Every structure is written in structure tokens, then in C-alpha cells.
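sorry for the late reply, my laptop died twice this morning and i had to redo everyting from scratch. anyway the thing you sent over, i finally got around to it. pasting the sequence first so we're on the same page, its 315 residues, then the predicted structure underneath. double check i copied it right bc i was rushing
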Amino acid sequence: MTGSKTLSNLDLVNRVDTWPYFQRDPIEYKKTMSQFYYFMIEGFTRPFGYAHSDFVKAMPWPSGWSVDHEQRLLTLHAPPDLNNRTKLMNDTLRAEHDKGDIAALRWWTDELFPVYAADSEHVLDMDGCGVDLFGVVNFAVHMLASVKTKDGLKFWVARRSTTKMSYPGMLDNTVGGSLSSRERPIDCIVRESAEEASFPKDYVRDNIKACGSLSYQMSRTDDGRPGCQHQVQYLYEIELTENIVPKPFDGEVEEFTLKTLDEVRDALARGEFKLNCAMTWMAYLIRHGVVNAENEPNFVEINSRLHRKHDLFIV
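ok and here's the structure:
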């Protein structure tokens, strides 16, 4: 929450896309990177993610890993195939999860997420608890659901469960979730729609509209620790009939409420939404011409910040 302060459109983006841009300010970029280690995999020349030094130094890295503190390199050494890399990664994470000494690893998702090389090669799968910690690129799906009522167009807005690890009780997009390994975005959003909102799968698949993607880089983890989030969102919209009402199913959502677009924008400006929801809504507002070059002085800047290129490199 931001108290009485009202957030501008650019403020909303600035709260999410917080990682410095090397081209704009190389000194600030290098200062930020001095707090991180490059997550490397033997056989590849470019990093796969940025791991915060607090995590790297707290971990008792087992055989199969090397840490170069001078060059800030954290390297996984495994036979060069997906299964062996995946086993070493998840055995490492699981051992520390079971010990419980590292707070960030006490949350085990039991769900695997893919890690890709710069040329899109699928190199390993990682339990979700490690995604933010290793600072790898994560792929997610987000959907905004609307319905035409007698009072005009309204949107179904989720309120996150108060038991959620991240952003408990805050407002959220109608449906969202991370893309599991080997899962297509459309299959993921259909699955999440059923699990989070009890939407009929056939209705969603028949009526959903794909609306592109957005990307950003955030300098904190979902649980508020210093870290690196490389995020890509696949965006979707769906118009519901009045008889299709979202209902919480899997415990992720406390409730769904209908809001007008003005009410959504007011809640965004008050900081009531989970941080990255601002990016989803900003993309929607631009896509539908609500925010445009005539009414937003930072229009070009906001557009560019919604489409950050995840180009990982060593400085």
C-alpha cells in the first residue's frame, strides 16, 4: 500500500521494472551487479540468471558446483544433458529445503519450470522455489476477464488469499500462473482458469483471446528479498457471459469482485494490486487506447519498459 500517495502510470511501471539499464547508466548497472553472482552452466558461455550474493554465500554447495568469488561465478557442472542437469539442480535445492536452514528454500512448489539457453535450448528443469533465487527467466500467463452488465463493462478482479507467501490479501489479475516445463501457454491459462476461478475449460478455450506478451526485470523476489526476477507474461483476455461467475477453487484466491475500469485504475493508483499486475493492466490500457500519446506524457517510455529484452551478459 502507498498510503495517500497516488501513483502515476509511470510510477506503476517503475515499481516493477526496477533493474537498471546498462545502456542508460552503466555505473549503476555495475553497482547492482556487484551484489550478484552469474549463474553459469558448464558448456555455455553466457549466464542463465543472476543469483544474489546472500543466497550464494549461505548455500553449502555440494559436489557438482563451483563458486568463483572473485569473478562472481556460480557454475553447475553436470553431464551435458537435460536430465543430469535437472537432477543435480533439484537434488541441491531439495537437500537444503529438507534441512530448513535457508528461509527462501522452505517453500517447495513440487512443480518444474524450464531454463533455456540464449539460443532457446531447453537445458534443465528447476523446482519453482529456485526460480527467483537463481534469477532465471520465468514465463507466466495472465488473463483479464470482463463481462457486459446493465451498468456497462466490468472486470472480475481477484483478491489473493491471506495465506499466500507473496502479496497476501492484495488485488490480482483474474487468473495467472507460471508456465510449467513443456506446457504451452494456452494450456497453462486454461488449466489455471479452472484451478483458480472454476471456469469451464471448454468455454475458456473457445472464447479466450491472445493479446501478445510483456516482459520486465525486477530487483526483488516475490517474498520481498533482494534478488532478480526476469519475467515474461503471455497476455490473454476473455469476455464472460453473466451466468459464468468465477469461484475460488484451489485456495489461491480469497474472493472475486466486479469492478469498473475506473475502479481498477483507482485501485492501481492506490497501490492495492500485486506489483506486477500494473504491467498487465498497463498493457491492456494501451492496447485499447485508454492510455495513449495524447493523454500520457510518458507514453513512449512506458511502452518500451513493457517489453524489456532479457539479454543476460557478464560485465
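Residues 82-99 form the longest helix (18 residues).
thats about all i looked at so far, will dig more tmrw
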